[in-house]
Every structure is written in structure tokens, then in C-alpha cells.
Design goal:
Helices cover about 30% and strands about 25% of the residues. It has 17 helices and 26 strands. Strand 9 and strand 10 form a beta hairpin. The structure holds 2-acetamido-2-deoxy-beta-D-glucopyranose (NAG) (7 copies). The site of one 2-acetamido-2-deoxy-beta-D-glucopyranose (NAG) has 5 residues, from strand 15.
């Protein structure tokens, strides 16, 4: 018997040694072959559907040079990966260092090939490129059912033997460590203490001992853990993951699995479920999930998740204000949102009006100091001058907090009537205060929106048949904004041209260099040299299917760049609306 135990333990340790590395993060549930085959392609270093193109040859992953790349080549890559098609080609993006060779160069595809390796190219490994020219693609994901409340995501970090290890857990044979999970049922015992209910799973120390927080060491035969009732049902899936490195994550279990992973220090699962959070954020139009995840992140001290949730809420603030979750928002969360410059709102007056109505709704449950504290986070100097005039009569809380309003109105009026030089010479003017910085204002005259225009084209091909394809046309808009939002600049206008380019040709026509497609540009048509103390921190908002903002980009040399460090939220297709926002600021 003893010998049997020892053998089993040894065998388990061997399995542990074999697996462990080689992470596979498969959001769409495509069954992927764990052993790559000659000619396989993958996307590395981006999101699910984008990244550096890599191809497997002679047992090694290598990259592809960007010479001559266009959508035809990208189509082949995306279809080989079973995406419905290609969205765009990414040139010149730094996807972290590629360790392998550059396998392909001067690639020419018709666009109809099933495998990238069947397109024509020089020969394997022959190229005059450096890794700086590694090409990337973004595939289209429409058609993959990524949205919808019951979507399920597979996390799979296994390389092999995973199924056998699952059987070991399921059978419980030879298990030597019991884990009892208890949670309050919500009822009370006769003696007044909360009634607890629990269940026990039996596991193997040899497996659990990789994670010290289980205390699965010599001389300890089991632990008891107190978890929330909602998590009870997912506990056994969590322990099974420790064996198999695989788990199906659903909307209902993701928060629980994340909590268990962080409680027991299972880092990989924690990171992956953390990443899933940003995938599911746009799925809930009631905003309850986003708000509850924020609160959860705040409780557990997960700063990345917290930022991820609040950024989504800031970008989609307007929808939040009309959602069922709005009136249940905590003071802390509303307060945190009001500190942000990336809050997307029509204008600052909307925000004031909105915060006032939130406070009124809450009534006396919010102390007077807290009310003032929230209202002070409104950037009064940014309120349009016309609205400042009506403020005393239109504000519902003016009479209650008159001193605060008066002080801030005065500040706002000074900002609007004094020249910058006079403002800075005033000792009370704090140039670095956020009160003088715009948020992202989408109302006129600061913003314009456009869609990529798409038309169906007919094309007569070499076999005398018509092919249908879609062609994008360049879109452009002209907007006029004042030089600055202070009233004294009311009559100094700047004309801006906003473009969305779909290919190199359109960029060249405009004399612009584009790095990926589509590319957006927002350029002044007048010289700005006269306005040296004004800096434009313009932004591009990318809205998905007309319903949520999934990305906000900065401009560099008038071209939109993805400057966000936080992960972007997914958009299942490329029906973006592009909203350009002009944001002048004194410097
Ligand atoms: C997506 O889901 C819908 C409804 O559940 C289904 O009709 C459709 O076939 C699915 N699409 C794909 C590509 O799986
Ligand atoms: C593990 O042991 C430590 C120290 O004895 C204890 O504080 C901790 O609660 C134990 N963990 C579990 C999950 O029982
Ligand atoms: C987690 O628990 C929920 C019920 O609370 C259940 O629907 C879901 O299938 C469970 N998921 C996993 C991965 O155990
Ligand atoms: C946001 O609001 C718009 C307009 O009311 C609505 O069409 C859209 O579906 C909302 N988006 C979300 C994610 O709730
Ligand atoms: C203030 O209220 C008046 C009357 O209700 C309204 O006409 C006016 O537009 C309001 N001002 C602003 C800036 O909303
Ligand atoms: C862009 O398309 C969306 C969805 O089709 C539509 O709701 C919106 O009005 C369009 N916006 C512009 C600026 O054309
Ligand atoms: C923008 O950059 C972030 C961080 O580098 C990345 O996670 C995200 O996928 C990028 N988005 C796009 C559309 O490239």
C-alpha cells in the first residue's frame, strides 16, 4: 500500500514537471492543436485577433517581413486562423522582441489561398529584413459570438496529460488532502449564529503543494475555507483547474474564479480571468457588472482591474448616467469618476446638472460635506460661458451650497474674461489645477463624428465572373473650433480637417505616412504658431456598433495613435464610429 502511494506521488510529480509552461489563452473556444504543425500560423503579442504574424517551420516559430504586404496576405492569415476575414495590416508596430528567424519575405498571395505557406515567396529564411519589419495583422471577429450574456470562454494552459490529471482529480483515488468549503446560508442557528453549509473535496498534496497558500504540506491533512455562497459551486472547478490547467469560464463564474485564484495565489488563472473581465465589460448594458467589478477590485486591492473598470465607466459615462446602476453608484466611485480627465461627456454643464440630480436623488443620505466635496470636483471654468450666466437660477443646489457655487463661479468668470498673462499673474490662479483642463467634450463645437463609408463593388475577374467585394472610401470632415474655450477666444477660430484613411493610397494622396489601417488624422488648417501657450490634447474616440466606446486614442503629429496602456475593450466587428475631439489647454 505504502509503495503504491509513493509510486502515485512520483507519477504525479512527473506530470507536474511536464506541464506548467506553454500558456494557451483561447477566447473563442476554437479547439487548437497543442502541437504545432509545419505551416501553422499564429498571432503573437497582441489581443485575441491581432498580433505579429508567425509561421511554424522546421520546428520553430518565425516571423514574416512586411515587404509587399496588403490585405490579400492578411486575408490568408486570418482565414487560416478561422477568423471570418482580415481587418487590417499592421506595419512598424513594436510587438516585443521576436526570438526566432524571419521565415518569409516578399510574400505574394492571391488572397484565396488556404495556407500562408502556399503563397509565393523567396524561400524559407531568405530575407533582407530585420525584425523591425515584422508584419502584424488584425483579423475580423464578427461572427464569433463574443458578446451575449451566456458566452463561455475556455482557458487552457495545458500542454498534455491534462485529461489524465482531470481523471485523477475526478476519481479522488489516492487523495490525501481534504478541503472543506463553508459558507453562510443566510439563515441563523437557534443560538443566533449564522448557519453554515459546506462541502468537501479531496485532493492530492503533491499537486496542491505548488501553491503554498493551500498549506498542503507534511503533517497537514486538510483545510477549511470560508467562501461566499455564490462561489461554492465553482470551487471544485477551481481545484480541477490546478490539476488540468483548463477551465470553462462564464459570465457567472469569472468573478468567483478570480477571487479564488487570488486567495490561493494561482497567478496565471488570476491574470487570465482578470483579462477576461475587460472582455465582458461591454456585455452588460445595465452597468451592474461594471460597477460590481469595480467595487470588487477596490475591496481586493486589484489596481489593474480597478483602473480597467473605471476607465470603461469614464468613457461610457453618459450611458452609465441613464442606466439602472446609476443611482446605486457609491459616493467613492462617483467621486473617483469626477476626478478624471478622460470622462466622456457632452460638456461640463451636463456633468454638473447630472451630479446635482444624483445628489438630489440620494437626498439626506449624503452629508452636506460630501455633497460639497462632489460638487467641487466639477470643473467650473470649463462650463460653457452661456451656461454660467444661468447657473444661479438653473442649479437646484445653488441655494443649499451658495458659498461653494459663488467661489467657483468667480473662478470660472475670471478664467473666461482674463487673458492668460493676467491669469497667471494672479496668485490665486493655479495653472496646474485640473479645474482648467478639459475632459473629453463631445458637444459642439469641439467634436465631430464619422463612420467609415463602405460600398459594395462588383469586380469582373479573369474567369469572366463577377465577384463582390466591399470597398471603403475615404471619409473626411471639416470642423471649426475656437482656439480655446475661454470666452476671450470666441472669435479666434481654427479649422480642422478630420480624415479616416483605409489604405496607403489614400494616405499618399494626402501626403501622409500611415502605419496601419484604418488610420485617423486630425490636422489644423491654420497655423498655430500664434498660440504658443495653448496646447491641443486632442482625442479620437472609437465607438463600437454605435453603442459603447471601446478605445480612446491620442494624436501624435496629427495622426491617431494607440497610446493607451490599459487593455482596450473588445469590439466584435469593424463598424466603428470615429469621434474626433479638440481639447485646448493653457500650458
Ligand atoms: C451566434 O449566436 C447566434 C444566436 O445564438 C447564432 O444564431 C449564430 O449562428 C452564432 N454565430 C456563430 C458564428 O456562431
Ligand atoms: C495556512 O496556514 C496559515 C498559518 O498557519 C494560516 O494562517 C492560514 O489561514 C492557512 N490557510 C488556509 C487556507 O487554511
Ligand atoms: C459556477 O457556478 C455557477 C452557478 O453559480 C454555474 O452556473 C457555473 O457553471 C459554474 N462554473 C464553473 C466553471 O464551475
Ligand atoms: C448607450 O446608449 C445608447 C443611446 O441611448 C444606446 O443605443 C446604447 O445601446 C447604449 N449602450 C450600452 C452599452 O448600454
Ligand atoms: C436654464 O433654465 C432655463 C429655463 O428653464 C432654460 O431655458 C435654459 O436653457 C437653462 N440654461 C441652461 C444652460 O441649460
Ligand atoms: C454611424 O453608424 C451608426 C450605426 O450604423 C449610426 O448610429 C450613426 O448615426 C452613424 N454616425 C455617423 C456620424 O454617421
Ligand atoms: C492598444 O494598446 C493596448 C496596450 O498596448 C493594447 O492592449 C490594445 O490591444 C491596443 N489596441 C489596438 C486597437 O491596437
Amino acid at each position: 500500500m505504502l509503495v503504491h502511494r509513493k509510486l502515485l506521488t512520483l507519477w504525479l510529480l512527473l506530470l507536474l514537471h511536464v506541464s506548467g509552461s506553454a500558456a494557451r489563452f483561447n477566447l473563442f473556444g476554437h479547439k487548437k492543436n497543442p502541437v504545432p504543425q509545419e505551416g501553422d500560423v499564429r498571432l503573437f503579442g497582441g489581443g485575441v485577433a491581432d498580433g505579429r504574424v508567425e509561421i511554424y517551420h522546421e520546428g520553430q516559430w518565425g516571423t514574416v517581413c512586411d515587404d509587399d504586404w496588403d490585405l490579400a496576405e492578411a486575408q490568408v492569415v486570418c482565414r487560416q486562423l478561422r477568423f471570418p476575414g482580415a481587418h487590417s495590416v499592421v506595419i512598424g508596430k513594436d510587438y516585443s522582441k521576436a526570438p526566432g528567424p524571419i521565415w518569409l519575405d516578399d510574400l505574394k498571395c492571391q488572397g484565396t489561398e488556404n495556407y500562408l505557406s502556399t503563397c509565393t515567396f523567396k524561400s524559407w529564411g531568405t530575407s533582407d529584413c530585420s525584425h523591425k519589419e515584422d508584419v502584424g495583422v488584425i483579423c475580423e471577429t464578427s461572427g464569433s459570438n463574443v458578446t451575449g450574456r451566456d458566452s463561455s470562454y475556455s482557458l487552457d494552459h495545458s500542454i498534455s496529460l491534462s485529461d489524465e490529471r482531470g481523471q485523477i482529480f475526478d476519481s479522488g483515488s489516492g487523495c490525501d488532502f481534504s478541503i472543506t468549503v463553508m459558507s453562510a446560508t443566510g439563515n441563523t442557528e437557534e443560538d443566533g449564529t449564522p448557519e453554515m453549509a459546506g462541502s468537501t473535496v479531496c485532493a492530492h498534496k503533491a499537486i496542491l503543494s505548488q501553491f503554498p497558500l493551500f498549506n498542503a504540506s507534511e503533517g497537514i491533512s486538510g483545510i477549511t475555507v470560508d467562501i461566499g455562497q455564490a462561489c461554492q459551486q465553482n470551487f471544485s472547478s477551481f481545484i480541477r483547474y490546478i490539476y488540468t490547467r483548463k477551465v470553462e469560464v462564464t459570465f457567472s463564474s469569472v468573478q468567483c474564479l478570480h477571487w479564488l485564484a487570488s486567495k490561493f495565489g494561482v497567478k496565471q488563472l488570476m491574470e487570465d480571468t482578470g483579462r477576461l473581465f475587460s472582455q465582458i465589460l461591454p456585455e452588460d448594458a445595465t452597468f451592474h457588472t461594471q460597477v460590481s467589478l469595480y467595487e470588487y477590485a477596490a475591496e481586493t486591492g486589484d489596481l489593474v482591474l480597478q483602473e480597467n473598470c473605471i476607465q470603461y465607466l469614464a468613457w461610457n459615462y453618459q450611458n452609465l448616467t441613464s442606466s439602472p446602476a446609476w443611482t446605486q453608484l457609491s459616493v467613492e466611485l462617483l467621486g473617483a469618476l469626477l476626478l478624471r480627465s478622460d470622462l466622456v461627456v457632452p460638456d461640463e454643464y451636463f456633468l454638473l446638472w447630472n451630479v446635482e440630480s444624483w445628489i438630489r436623488e440620494k437626498g439626506d443620505s449624503i452629508s452636506s460635506e460630501t455633497q460639497v466635496d462632489l460638487l467641487k470636483r466639477i470643473r467650473f471654468p470649463m462650463i460653457p460661458a452661456e451656461a454660467l450666466n444661468d447657473l444661479e437660477s438653473n442649479s437646484s443646489l445653488y441655494a443649499t451650497h451658495e458659498a461653494m457655487y459663488r467661489e467657483n463661479l468667480l473662478k470660472a468668470l475670471q478664467f473666461n474674461v482674463l487673458l492668460f498673462g493676467n491669469l497667471v499673474s494672479n496668485p490665486k490662479f493655479d495653472k496646474d489645477s485640473d479645474d482648467y483642463r478639459p475632459r473629453i467634450y463631445t458637444a459642439e463645437p469641439w467634436s465631430t463624428a464619422m463612420n467609415r463609408t463602405q460600398n459594395r463593388q462588383m469586380h469582373y475577374n479573369q474567369y469572366n465572373q463577377y465577384n463582390q467585394y466591399y470597398q471603403y472610401y475615404p471619409s473626411s470632415r471639416v470642423i471649426n473650433t475656437p482656439v480655446h474655450n475661454s470666452l476671450i477666444f470666441k472669435n479666434n477660430k481654427i479649422q480642422w480637417e478630420a480624415n479616416v484613411f483605409n489604405n496607403q493610397q489614400e494616405c499618399s494622396n494626402r501626403g501622409v505616412r500611415c502605419e496601419s489601417f484604418p488610420s485617423a488624422r486630425l490636422a489644423p488648417q491654420n497655423s498655430l504658431s500664434e498660440w504658443r501657450h495653448i496646447l491641443f490634447r486632442n482625442r479620437l474616440l472609437l465607438m463600437c456598433q454605435g453603442t459603447y466606446i471601446f478605445q480612446v486614442q491620442d494624436f501624435k503629429n496629427h495622426m491617431a495613435v494607440n497610446g493607451s496602456l490599459a487593455p482596450a475593450y473588445p469590439c466584435p466587428d469593424d463598424q466603428y464610429t470615429y469621434q474626433f475631439v479638440v481639447r485646448p489647454e493653457y500650458v
